[in-house]
Sequence to fold (377 residues):
Amino acid sequence: MSSFVSVVGDGRDVSSWGHPVLGQQGPVSVLDPNPWSYNAQTGVFPTSATKVPYRPTLEILAPENHKRLTHSELRKLQIKEAERISGLTMKEMGELQLAYMQGKADKAGKDIGEYLLDLAGRLGRPGGLGNQATWWPSLSAAQKASWQRRYDSVEKRLMQEAPAPIRQMLKEARALGPDKGIRFDPVACEKYIAYAICGNGTFSVGKSFVEDAEANPKRVYSNIAHELGGHWCYGGPVSMELLNHCLKQIADHQRVIATSGRSLHTIFGYPETEIYAELCELDWRIPTNSTDEPCRDIPAMLKLTKAAFEPSVARALVLALRYRVQLDPHVSGAARKLLDESIKDVFGRQFLSQAIGAPSRVDVGLGVLQRALGWSF
Ligand SMILES: [Zn+2]
Fold:
């Protein structure tokens, strides 16, 4: 997991990566107009997941239409699936998560801010840019120029030799602007202690990437698929949206405490996008890849999710991610299988077999239940 940094969530969509057919057609939406407006007469969008039952349309579920789903459409489907599974809207899931964390904090005799700070200290990773670059500043101007030349020829070679889907990822990132696409930024990589960093369509690579690509370009394909095809395409993690909702609800001084230590994103957001990125790199891996290990990392990310979220929220998040992955044309069958096996390992063999048509028992306060079900007493 050395290439762990994900700076994602700008909402832009790159639907065609790894999918040459789409590249020719441009973005295609099979979901417009809004398929969640089940009331055809009024066209009213459901305000609560349970007030208007969720039914995936046959159109969406037809395999030939999966190929045309864009990443932002997939994300919308994922959110609706999480709402269907939990029986709660995103906002209500956020409230449930906050109540759960508050309960844990009360039990431990802590304020919510302290609880989150401790949780991050225990499960989180140090935030980005905490490290000081030392290698690059130690080089002479001539050495730096030599490294830049080595990088330039690596990039040229990748653009010529890499398989079409990998080239397409690099090309589309580059098309976003002059500073986008792949670039040599050893200082950023040192600061993040990363092999490569992806953010806003910019893929910054460091020293090890250049050395690996020089030795054998195939060694870096999985990293490109991970960062650009994975993290960047995925967009903002749904799980982080829930945490942000929680953070908005707590007092300012508590929020300052909660975010003063290790990154909360590494517990509440990163696992979701990292799972996707590791699934995307799976098919490009070769035996000498030394960075990630999807068979080990994906279960570890699921364990983090299990530890951080209220059980029914965790369940909704995991099953909705799985739903998205199943619909996603960029994810291979082998990768889908790995996700399923990892879920079974971490959450139990029965977890997936209960997925269809079995809303979870929602163990929440009466207020939330009332709102979710539209009951009045
Ligand atoms: Zn990653």
Remarks:
- The CA atoms of residues 9 and 245 lie 16 Å apart.
- The chain is about 60% helix and 5% strand.
